[in-house]
Design goal:
The chain is α/β, with parallel strands linked by helices. It starts with a helix and ends with a helix. Helix 4 runs antiparallel to helix 5, helix 5 runs antiparallel to helix 8 and helix 5 packs antiparallel against helix 11. A hairpin with a 2-residue loop joins strand 9 and strand 10. The protein folds into 3 domains: 291 residues, ABC transporter transmembrane region fold, CATH 1.20.1560.10; 217 residues, P-loop containing nucleotide triphosphate hydrolases (Rossmann fold, 3-Layer(aba) Sandwich); 50 residues, no CATH class. It has a 6-stranded mixed β-sheet, sandwiched between helices. It has a 4-stranded antiparallel β-sheet with strand order 2-1-4-5. It is built from 22 helices and 10 strands. The model has no long low-confidence stretch (mean pLDDT 78). The protein is elongated.
């Protein structure tokens, strides 16, 4: 099977080599054809450049002899070499720029895919704004590998090696002196440039933080205006902007020191070489035409040395950006709980622990790719990532059974654990301890995407996407006809709203769905979920933005449309409890009541107070 560029980049982010050069090589190998063409072109351009000093020396000799025909011939060759070198260099620059752009896109797509898979419990450490910075700034840095990286450095090595060969041929003694001085200058530059690597990475981090803060502010712009909190937002932006300015100043100071140092070293090296060369010319050991060629080769030798600082800095920034993406990839790679521990927990359960869920050892093992809808929690706990006041657990030692096809209401005070249970069932979270069983199988044994494709999830915010009504209904699916979309819009009460728009299903929803009211957004999100015909439906406070009439209408619609699928609805108040088969009452992360609504009402003052709202 052919390995694509995306495969190589994916492998790099999942299992990166240890050394920086090895990482750069993997990136270059992501586009081997471009790398080969660029390398060959760089070598050819370097060889054409190497011919120019020799031709210039011969041209000076012909000028001294006033040999007109030789002057014309050598001048033509020199012009051809210069044009060839320029054209090949231009072609290489174009090829590497295209390759760099392709690479940037691959990293952008890969980092976006990674960002979309960050576990819910990690979003506190990696908020949306931070993910945006990694998908944009960090990805853009990766193109430098092709445009100003190792390939160009290899071309520089060809120039250095070719120049040394020609310099030795012209004057070995002067070459040794020049090479010794150049090596000394290079050592000083490399030692001084070590500081630049850390400075460049610090600036990169500060730039990412600033972009992240700007993104947060713009995401919350309406809230900021509503609370007249411009000074608050500007203050936060100013803090990160100051950090970026400080990092930029540190980078400027380092470069301000490095540039004169490099310039002084180059000028000093050239001055010493000139003094030595003059003595060689005066002694008759070095002709004038050879001296001209020697100086040109010396400049070719020094040029790559001077340019190495920029290359080192660029590659340091690139590797820093890569490391940030690797770190993010590691966040998305959940560490599954030890398989032996899971099996031991499952084997420790008695038949009574399964309730309505028979142990699959006593029946054919369920198909892990099919959701039937029987749910069981066994001593499930979820620990807060960083602690939350006096509570260690968002959910503590919760056990219950839900039969297939049941309508279950999760209720409780704010922060009682309702949304945590739904997040566990959506596999946004994994239990700190305990087991979640689905149709008798541990939920962790199921493929996440296959499982989620059969689970409907409607959250309180009901986020929609900039695009059309159809885009938001289908989310990329192509197996749902327009007639089905219109039918579902009619069922959720949006048919007249969408029909009134000239574009129909192609009507734009608008950025952040501002073209729809809050209730309309909720109904559109509900229609999107019901079109999937899920086998397990999770509802998280979905009626909070609807009036009483629409609440009843939507809940009735879900019941009649979804048939006998398992539905678990979290919310406050009485809505949904009148037709519920089961009620789970949570308080402080613990399950305090479980049973039929009538039974729970009779014995639970907390439930009576909740349904009285």
């Amino acid at each position: 099977m052919t390995t694509t560029s995306a495969d190589r980049i994916g492998g790099l982010l999942s299992d990166p080599p240890t050394g920086p050069l090895a990482r750069l090589l993997v990136i270059l190998r992501s586009d081997p054809r471009a790398m080969l063409v660029a390398f060959v072109g760089t070598v050819v351009a370097s060889l054409a450049a190497l011919a120019q000093p020799a031709l210039t020396g011969l041209l000076v000799g012909a000028l001294q002899e006033m040999d007109t025909s030789r002057l014309l011939w050598l001048g033509s060759l020199l012009l051809a070499a210069a044009v060839a070198s320029s054209l090949v260099t231009a072609a290489v620059n174009l090829i590497t720029a295209y390759a760099g752009n392709r690479l940037v896109r691959t990293f952008r797509d890969s980092s976006a895919d990674i960002a979309l898979r960050v576990p819910a419990e990690k979003l506190v450490e990696h908020p949306t704004a931070d993910l945006v910075a990694r998908c944009s700034i960090d990805s853009e840095k990766m193109g430098e590998v092709f445009t100003r990286g190792p390939i160009q450095a290899l071309g520089g090595l060809v120039l250095v090696a070719g120049s040394l060969v020609q310099m030795v041929r012209l004057d070995p003694i002067l070459t040794v002196s020049a090479l010794s001085l150049c090596v000394l200058a290079l050592v000083v530059i490399v030692l001084a440039s070590n500081r630049l690597t850390g400075v460049a990475f610090a600036r990169q981090e500060a730039q990412g933080a600033y972009v992240a803060e700007v993104t947060r502010a713009l995401d919350s712009v309406l809230t900021i205006r509503a609370f007249v909190a411009n000074s608050f937002a500007v203050g936060r932006l100013s803090t990160t902007s100051q950090r970026l300015q400080d990092a930029s100043n540190a980078s400027a100071r380092a470069q301000a020191f490095m540039e004169p140092l490099v310039s002084a070293l180059i000028q000093g090296t050239m001055l010493v070489i000139i003094l030595i060369a003059c003595t060689r010319v005066q002694s008759g050991a070095l002709p004038v035409d050879a001296l001209v060629a020697f100086f040109m080769y010396t400049m070719m030798l020094i040029g790559p040395i001077a340019g190495s600082i920029d290359t080192v800095m660029l590659m340091a920034e690139t590797l820093g950006a890569l490391q940030r993406m690797v770190d993010l990839k590691a966040v998305t790679a959940r560490t599954p709980r030890d398989a032996d521990r899971l099996r031991a927990e499952l084997d420790a359960l008695s038949p009574a622990d399964f309730g309505s869920l028979e142990a699959y050892g006593d029946r054919p093992r369920p198909d892990p790719d099919v959701v039937e809808g029987e749910v069981g929690f066994r001593n499930v706990s979820v620990r807060y990532a960083g602690g939350a006041g006096d509570r260690e657990f968002a959910l503590a030692d919760v056990s219950f059974d839900i039969a297939r096809g049941s309508w279950v209401v999760l209720t409780g005070t704010s922060g009682s654990g309702k949304s945590t249970i739904l997040s566990l069932l959506e596999r946004f979270l994994v239990p700190s301890q305990g087991l979640i069983l689905l149709d008798g199988l541990p939920l962790e044994d199921r493929d996440e995407d296959v499982y989620r494709s059969q689970v409907g999830y409607i959250e309180q915010a009901c986020p929609l996407f900039a695009g059309t009504v159809r885009d938001n209904l289908l989310l990329g699916r192509d197996d749902i006809a327009d007639e089905q979309c219109w039918e579902m819009l009619d069922q959720v009460g949006l048919h007249p709203t969408v029909r009134r728009r000239e574009e129909g299903l192609d009507a734009p929803v608008g950025e952040s769905a501002y073209a729809f009211s809050g209730g309309e957004r909720q109904r559109l999100a509900i229609a999107r979920t019901l079109l999937r015909r899920p086998r397990l439906l999770l509802l998280d406070e979905i009626t909070s933005g609807l009036d009483v009439l629409n609440r009843v209408q939507i809940m009735e619609l879900i019941r009649t449309t979804m048939g006998d699928i398992t539905t678990i609805a979290a919310g406050h108040g009485r809505f949904g409890t009148e037709w519920a088969d089961q009620v789970l009452v949570l308080d402080g992360g613990r399950l305090v009541e479980n049973g039929h609504p009538g039974e729970v009402t009779a014995r639970s003052a907390l439930f009576r107070s909740l349904t009285a709202q």
